[in-house]
Specification:
Shape: elongated
Oligomer: single chain
Low-confidence stretches: 13-18
Largest sheet: 2 strands, parallel
Helix content: 55-70%
Mean pLDDT: 74
Number of helices: 7
Number of strands: 2
Structural class: mainly alpha
Order of helices and strands: HEHHHHEHH
């Protein structure tokens, strides 16, 4: 019994040791599909992006492939995916996050600038279209309304 358990343990360790990493820049579609969490759609996007240029690092991979974020990159790395032979690391996550937040902050700044100019235009349009408050206070009083008790005959 002990001999069988020892043999099973050794076989498991050897299978784990022979497990090879899959590099995203050289992997075939089948190899990418073999990574848990990567299906045909994602592997197609990876291969399509890879045609324009190889991925430099994990931050580049996350930035260019839609649907891949830090959490999925961690999972892919645990499953054996590498970028240029490197596993996903905290440093890569920080770099990807910085790149992502830089994109978001620049687009938010542009949105704020556009909203600010639109607000100014709207404020200018309403102040030029509406008469000043003092002008309505000095206007002539309205004519009295007819009496409600009068007959129309």
């Amino acid at each position: 019994m002990l001999k069988k358990l020892l043999t099973l343990l050794v076989a498991t360790l050897l299978a784990t040791a022979t497990w090879a990493a899959v590099d995203v820049n050289t992997a075939t579609e089948a190899e990418l599909d073999g990574i848990k969490g990567i299906g045909p759609g994602l592997s197609g996007r990876i291969l399509q992006e890879r045609q324009s240029a190889p991925f430099k690092d994990w931050a580049d991979f996350i930035g260019r492939v839609g649907g891949v974020g830090n959490k999925s990159a961690v999972n892919f790395s645990k499953e054996g995916l590498t970028v240029n032979g490197k596993k996903y690391s905290v440093a890569a996550a920080a770099k990807a996050e910085a790149k992502s937040s830089k994109k978001h902050s620049s687009s938010q700044a542009a949105d704020r600038k556009a909203r600010g100019s639109a607000d100014k235009e709207a404020a200018t349009a309403t102040t030029s279209a509406a008469p000043p408050a003092t002008a309505t206070a000095t206007a002539a009083p309205a004519a009295p309304a007819p009496a409600t008790g009068a007959s129309k005959n």
